[in-house]
Amino acid sequence: MVRLTKNISLRGYNSFGIDATADLMVEWSDAAALRTFLAAEGAPLIAQGARWNILGEGCNTLFTADYHGTLFHSTASRLEVVEENDREVVIRVESGLLWDTVVAWSCERGLWGAENLSAIPSSVGATAVQNIGAYGTEAKDLIQRVEYIELPSLEERTIEGSDCKFGYRESIFKRELAGRAIITAVHYRLWKLPCPKLDYGTLRPEVERIGEVTPSAIRRAVESIRSSKLPDPKVTGNAGSFFVNPILPRHQVEGLKERYPSMPIYEVAGDPERLKIATGWMIDTLGWKGKTLGRAGVHTHQALVLINTGGATGEEVVALAERICREVEEHFGVRISPEVNIL
Ligand code: EPU
């Protein structure tokens, strides 16, 4: 099914709770129907020069004005097992399902791999675009392949996870395939044998407190850590981390570490010449936690998260983000950039 709504309010479609509208929303629950639509009456919507975008759960998008174009939103949500053996299960999940429903499904069955990615507000499609990550796991560790509709040809394509050029919050869908792919389904590989990853931050003590090492217990531990640090978007508008953590040359980070011995730094897998630093720590060190600028603010428990304190416009959030970027650059000599997609 394909459903069209003109002049739609986006308030319920973005976790910042920004009150903007879109000229047109195309919601689709079936990839074949979407292709048929785009081949016929929908063709002008994606023709050269037309403005369009894909909106997942709207948890990583900030609208700074009304959107004069078309937003495509998947409501396709089937989950099926496509392969199973003694060691693993592969599931195919359509792009509109809430990612956390997949994690819950997996943990309930005692399958391993997804539990550290609990409670991330994301659609399944966005897990592949963003390579979502938390507590030492990234979506790329699970993604076996991705199905998408290629534009403008409207061909159905499949790309293997190993070809998706996944990196830290990076993928081919943000680069070469940006504007050329509508993701329809993602295949995830889950493990039957225990493979807990408990080394990030306070995860291990939280799991020890719960008293068992199962996917469900780890899920509960992650939920508990996240809810203590991150605001619930149903209560306070936000989009999780507003900025990404910069990955910088090792010598630059070593210089920073000399000046700021308590600055947290992280190795980057497969890249010994570069290190990742914590933007949240820098913003916190500058004293921004809990502060506001207009109706936008910095979350009290996690400085990487910008919030809508009530009625903020997208522009107010951007003004705060720009001010923070400027101060971080002046103080630390580091340029930070948003993780959030600003439209
Ligand atoms: N820190 C501070 N003050 C702050 C925030 C962080 O000092 O206000 C310090 C922490 O103490 C820690 C370090 O900075 O030493 C890193 O903080 P944290 O572990 O909270 O992780 P993060 O780098 O701030 C990233 C992801 C989160 C993910 C967590 C846990 C990005 C952009 N964000 O945040 O993802 O949940 O790690 O793995 O990489 C998201 O992308 O929306 C998101 C929430």
Structure description:
With 343 residues, this protein is an alpha+beta fold. It has 3 domains: 2-74, Uridine Diphospho-n-acetylenolpyruvylglucosamine Reductase, domain 2 (2-Layer Sandwich); 79-205, Uridine Diphospho-n-acetylenolpyruvylglucosamine Reductase, domain 3; 237-342, UDP-N-acetylenolpyruvoylglucosamine reductase, C-terminal domain (Uridine Diphospho-n-acetylenolpyruvylglucosamine Reductase, domain 1). It has helices at residues 31-39, 43-46, 99-108, 124-130, 203-210, 215-229, 250-259, 279-285, 314-332, and strands at residues 2-9, 21-28, 52-54, 61-62, 67-74, 79-84, 88-94, 133-134, 137-138, 143-150, 156-160, 181-191, 237-241, 247-249, 265-267, 274-277, 292-293, 296-298, 305-308, 341-342. The structure holds uridine-diphosphate-2(N-acetylglucosaminyl) butyric acid. Residues 134-135, 200-201, 240-241, 244-245, 264, 278, 280-281, 284, 289, 302-304, 339 line the site of uridine-diphosphate-2(N-acetylglucosaminyl) butyric acid (EPU).
Brief descriptors of the model:
343 residues, Uridine Diphospho-n-acetylenolpyruvylglucosamine Reductase, domain 2, Uridine Diphospho-n-acetylenolpyruvylglucosamine Reductase, domain 3, Uridine Diphospho-n-acetylenolpyruvylglucosamine Reductase, domain 1, 3 domains, five-stranded antiparallel beta sheet, four-stranded mixed beta sheet, 9 helices, 20 strands, globular, binds uridine-diphosphate-2(N-acetylglucosaminyl) butyric acid
